[in-house]
Amino acid sequence: MSVKCQIIMDWIEEWAKPDLAEDWDRIGLLVGAPADEIDKVLVTLDVTRDVIAEAIKEKAQMIVSHHPLYRDPLPYLRSDLYPASHVYRLIREGIALYAAHTNLDAVSGGINDILVDRLGLVDVDLLFLTGEEQLYKLVAFVPAGYEDQVRRAMCSRGAGWTGNYSDCTFQTEGTGTFKPLEGTNPFIGKTGKLEKVAELRIETIVPENKLKKVIEEMLAAHPYEEVAYDLYPLKNQGTRNGLGRVGKLPEPLTLVDFAQKVKVCLGLEVVKVTGEPERLVSKVALCGGSAMMFLPHALKCGADVYLTGDVKHHGALDAVDQGIAVVDAGHYGTEQVVVPVLADYIKEKANEAGQELTVVVSQVKTDPFRYM
């Protein structure tokens, strides 16, 4: 049985939330409709002519890419002018296109964390903070005997997470009072009579993005006709998101050995390097893609070397003059690592949901450069 395009979108956005994307970015469903029926998904870094041909050959009804096919609004939809020609072809073939770009860069477990894992960095922190998740305390008042069913309902939707611990709540006993008035249908008590009921106060923490679903689930599981609950915004630190990462190598390496490590870990033929080959590097700043704009942040955090892509001549000179080494592993080289991870994630979500969905990784190498 096929899966609605909207469901696949929801899975991706549960991880790489759209509000993590930069304002200028064009993410989400770029071609197709949420109601489209999907049997097969092709996951790719870029959407090129060859990738579209591959999707047609694979009989995929959806392409999930990292890079959007276009950034600016299309002034026309012509089959003879790029990039509208690609959109035209996708529509004609009935293939939906979804992009997760800077939100997939910033999210925990996204491109930059994958690079961290590949390089084995430790003591990792964000290079550039872009946002912090707002946390709330949800307090529900539940009649004795129903506390477990309400607690399970809230936690099933993402409440009660503290680090690697789930189902974290606190409860206290008390007495609730209420008087059902004319026209009510009370679960406990009689109309016109003040009731005193043994109740439990259940408290838990909920991140803002899960709040709506947690409250809906709590209300559905609660036995009362009118549910009493409180919501408090918290100053506790929520999940921090940002672009780039900074961490340490387990053991210092010479710059030339670090460059070799990057090539091996990322499966690259060549990288560009600035700095003295024999200098020791220990602290590493990195950001996948084209991110020399974060060089000042790499310098500020005391990094010995900055790993990114698309380094230009003057940016490299700026780094040399300020005493930080740079390893340019290319835009493709620093971001292609996310494709199999994203594909595996979609597969896992489909399996968890009991949905039959084929997910394949594109075999088209979209790196436009050849090294001769």
Tally of strands: 17
CATH class of the largest domain: Alpha Beta
Number of domains: 3
Element order, helices and strands?
A: EHEEEHEHEHHEEHEEHEEHEEHEHEHHE
Which structural class fits the helix and strand makeup? alpha/beta
- For the record, give the distance between the C-alpha atoms at the N and C termini, rounded to a whole number: 47 Å
Largest sheet: 6 strands, mixed
The CATH topology annotation of the largest domain reads as Udp-n-acetylmuramoylalanyl-d-glutamate--2,6- Diaminopimelate Ligase, Chain: A, domain 1
Structure description:
The structure is a single chain. This protein has twelve helices and 17 strands. The chain has 372 residues and is of the alpha/beta class. It has three domains: 124 residues, 3-Layer(aba) Sandwich (Udp-n-acetylmuramoylalanyl-d-glutamate--2,6- Diaminopimelate Ligase, Chain: A, domain 1); 109 residues, NIF3 (NGG1p interacting factor 3)-like (Udp-n-acetylmuramoylalanyl-d-glutamate--2,6- Diaminopimelate Ligase, Chain: A, domain 1, 3-Layer(aba) Sandwich); 100 residues, Alpha-Beta Plaits (2-Layer Sandwich), CATH 3.30.70.120. A six-stranded mixed β-sheet has the order 7-12-14-15-16-13. A five-stranded mixed β-sheet has the order 2-6-5-4-17, with helices on both faces. Strands 9-10-8-11 form a four-stranded antiparallel β-sheet. Helix 9 links the parallel strand 14 and strand 15. Helix 6 runs antiparallel to helix 7. The longest helix is centred in the last third of the chain and has 15 residues. The mean pLDDT is 95.
